[in-house]
Prior knowledge:
Elements: E1 3-7, H1 14-25, E2 30-34, E3 45-48, H2 54-64, E4 66-71, H3 77-82, H4 84-105, E5 108-110, E6 113-114, H5 138-157, E7 160-162, E8 164-166, E9 168-170, H6 183-194, E10 196-199, E11 206-211, H7 212-224, E12 236-237, E13 241-244, H8 245-253, E14 260-263, H9 268-273, H10 282-288, H11 296-311
Parallel strand pairs: 1-2, 1-4, 2-3, 4-5, 5-7, 6-8, 8-12, 9-11, 10-14
Antiparallel strand pairs: 11-13
Helix pairs in contact: 1-7, 2-4, 4-5, 6-8, 6-11
The chain binds serine.
Pfam families: Epimerase
Organism: Candidatus Woesebacteria bacterium GW2011_GWB1_38_5b
Domain NAD-dependent epimerase/dehydratase: 4-239
Amino acid sequence: MKKILVTGAFGQIGSELVPALQEKFGKDNVVAMGHEKIDESYDGILEKADSRDKNSLETIIKNHDIGTVYHLVSLLSVKGETDPSLTWDINMNGLKTILDLGVRFDLKIFWPSSIAAFGPSTPRDNTPQHTVLEPTTIYGVTKYAGEGLCRYYNIKYGLDVRSVRYPGILSWKTPPGRGTTEYAIEIFYEGLQKGRYTCFLREDTKLPMMYVDDAIRATIVIMEAPLENIKVRNSYNIAALSFTAGELASEVKKYIPNLEVDYKPDKRQLIADSWPRTIDDSEAKKDWGWTYEYDLPKMTKVMVENLRREFGIPA
Ligand code: SER
């Protein structure tokens, strides 16, 4: 088979997608590409390159006979606001480079969008698949523009590029990143290690979330769906659960009864307030059979169990 390339392989999603792809297709068929962040303990084919560097990517695609690319490189919402130009450069020019190579080498491409593509003018409850997209962060602008670019490359060149709008993803293998939904990971890290957590969002802030195993499954399932089932070519809404910061804290307290949580909303609250509360994912369900498995109690349990083991904390 032609090999699979994963860019951003050592980020939050990549760290979990690469092992899942290795298990499914064999270690010899998966190439992990990192740039600044590389896990030295990684066992498999490794390439170090900047995803904006067309020549390096072209060499990697040719040398490894790549047929599929999961292009995961991205700066997230909070980091993005610290340097909008860099965020545009990495998120958009990286994507365009991959899409151009996709046309040239007939690649099948996965690229993640996000709930951040929506903005304050989008209906926040049961957000429809096709709706107003007026994001107010540079991260969201790159996701919105990226969706348009993917759709355009499909229309213009017939490129098979597929995408989902990830909600906030909860995972434990990589430390919390610089996003807005990352409060939901921080509460586990700090709760278990320090017994207290100051949340940067209000207690009643509700956002769409998903456990990483479900996100990985969505990613692989959409890529395996028959071509004719992929009807949405900008990006599919997918949903699992939606909870408030307070609801998550109550669930985590079932495992850490003495946990102290307080709420000191900062400018990240404005970002959270511009995003949906719940998502309508009926088109993903209908077109390629999307379902989720992890609800709030199940997700909380696996997060706590895995992080206790990581930190060497007895139950
Ligand atoms: N986790 C992302 C963020 O908060 C959402 O796509 O930036």
